[in-house]
Amino acid sequence: MQCGRNATFSIQFSSLFWLVSFLLFKPLGAQKAIPAEPYIAEAQKYYIANWKKSVRSLTYDSADFIGLPNPYSTPTLSGNQMFREMYYWDSYFINCGLLTYGNHPQRDGDATPDEKDAIQQAINNCNNLIYLVNRFGFIPNANRFSMTNRSQPPLLAAMVNDIFDVTGDTAWLRIALKALEKEYNWWMENRSLGLTPQEYQGIHGAHRHPSALRLNHYGNNATDAFLLRFAQFLKGRLGPGFDSIYSELNRDTLISREGKKQGKGILLSDHLLAEAESGWDFTTRFNARCLFIAPLDLNCLLYLSETTLSNGYKILKERKKSSAWRHQSNLRKALIDKLFYDKHTGWYWDYDIAKREIHFNYNAAQFMPYFVGLARHNSRNKTALARLSNTYIGKFGVYPCLPLAKDSSAIAANRVFWKTQWDSPNAWPPLTHFAAQAIRNYSNGRGKLINLMLNMKRNQLIVSFMESVEVQFSITQKFWEKYNIDYGTLQVVNEYPMPDFFGWTAGVYMEYRIEFEGH
To answer: Do the Cβ atoms of 360 and 407 come closer than 8 Å?
Structure first.
């Protein structure tokens, strides 16, 4: 073990090495195929003129739609026939744009009526999710009855934090925390597995509360009939690669969880519906074994729920509740540090709960311990984050998973032989946001050199993301769901015809354009 001056020198040298590497080998995201500057104002005006056109209202249940008490934001503008629902995790990124637009921190003067409306719409979105928790016990994938057999990444805590930061409304916070507790309990009761004594050995206090030590995974509550219909849907969406493997699996049979004899292809449908709950539908990340993976991002987001509950109840002066949630968050942090962290790479990974070992798939969820503030704020983790950023941040965004050519360990193990859109060359705005916020959280404090490098990398990521949005807006006069990571174009892998989008692209774009423009 290194100590004293030698350890300090090692960390400083590593920081210097990665700074030099960044300066010499950084992706050329700043090179412009088309000058974006003339289109910045037009893209911002488009957001301001159209955000209300993405808001719909339906206060009663109608056919497959679940009625919501407040107007709700959707990913597409009125008139578009795709994505007319309110989606759970999309709402977080939509709110990032609404709150930033409505609450410019750099601008003097009062908010305009439109900006006040934007803040209210962000509150409406969060209140709708709270309503869904209270009605169903969890937040469905979207406000459709056909999507109530799964949820999406639990970002309610992040939304509650953002709303409370703007309003400071403690009466609302009390209501929100009760819903957040209810959602958290659903994840623990329906999407978790207990640990072996070997897995929790060495964790302080674990022997007193072993039942509280659980790892969470994505899943679904679908019936056999739904999974069989879902497989037919996937044949059309994912193409012949999926169809071939599904048909091959169906040559053998099994007894399903409903006790019925089914073709083994139903297991593949089961795993891929769990991928739909992850939001990454579909991807090579889980290697078509999503039910067997404890995802790093999910467990980090539940850590955020725990810390939000602890901090929230502290604000409300409910000390016992605050202390209990702080204890729970400390247990989860210790678990993640022990099971998800690999000391050889210095990175956090997904965990394979079937094999009881780290799932070494290179993917952008590895930014999440830094996004939620779980990783210790020290030079070693800052250096690890710098290497992570150099690995995943491409010319125009963040790689969802490294291309197989760059991740040679995944080639032999690959079981996914169909097209997947949460992979290279697609750059997704949510991943840009997670990475940018993660870097921001750790690019301050001690270590001027590594802080400088992290800030430079963050700036490169955000500027190149905004460039891809603005250049394509100059060509099409629209925002889009995703962009090409190498060229910033619309040459992407699609599982369905890509609609012109608003949603998370508009939200993340407006969030960072206002930050960078300072108005």
So the answer is: no
| Segments in 251-360 forming alpha helices (H) | 265-278, 296-315, 319-339
Could you give the 3-state DSSP secondary structure of residue 164?
Answer: helix
Of 430, 388, 427, 357, nearest in space to 198 by CA:
357
Nearest to 517 by CA among 51, 105, 34, 49: 105
Distance from C-alpha of 72 to C-alpha of 80, rounded to nearest angstrom = 15
Question: pLDDT-based confidence at 2, cuts 50/70/90?
Answer: very low
DSSP string, 36-65: -GGGHHHHHHHHHHHGGGGEE---S-BTTB
Contact 85, 116 (CB under 8 A): no
Looking up tokens 């290179």 gives 362
Q: Which helix (H) or strand (E) holds 232?
A: helix 224-238
Determine the pLDDT at residue 81: 83
The set of residues, in sequence order, having a beta carbon less than 8 Å from that of 177 and lying 6+ positions away, is: 160, 308, 309, 312, 313, 316
In angstroms, rounded to a whole number, what is the distance separating the alpha carbons of residues 413 and 397? 26
**Angstrom distance (rounded) from CA 489 to CA 464:** 12
Mean pLDDT of 100-104: 91
pTM: 0.93
Number of neighbouring beta carbons within 10 Å of residue 71: 17
CA separation for the pair 84, 79 (Å, rounded): 9
Average pLDDT, the chain: 91
What mean pLDDT comes out for the span 20-24? 46
Mean local confidence (pLDDT), 78-93: 94
Confidence tier at 207 by pLDDT (50, 70, 90): confident
- Please state, in angstroms and rounded to a whole number, the distance separating the CA atoms of residues 348 and 300: 11
Tell me how far apart the terminal alpha carbons of the chain are, to the nearest angstrom: 49
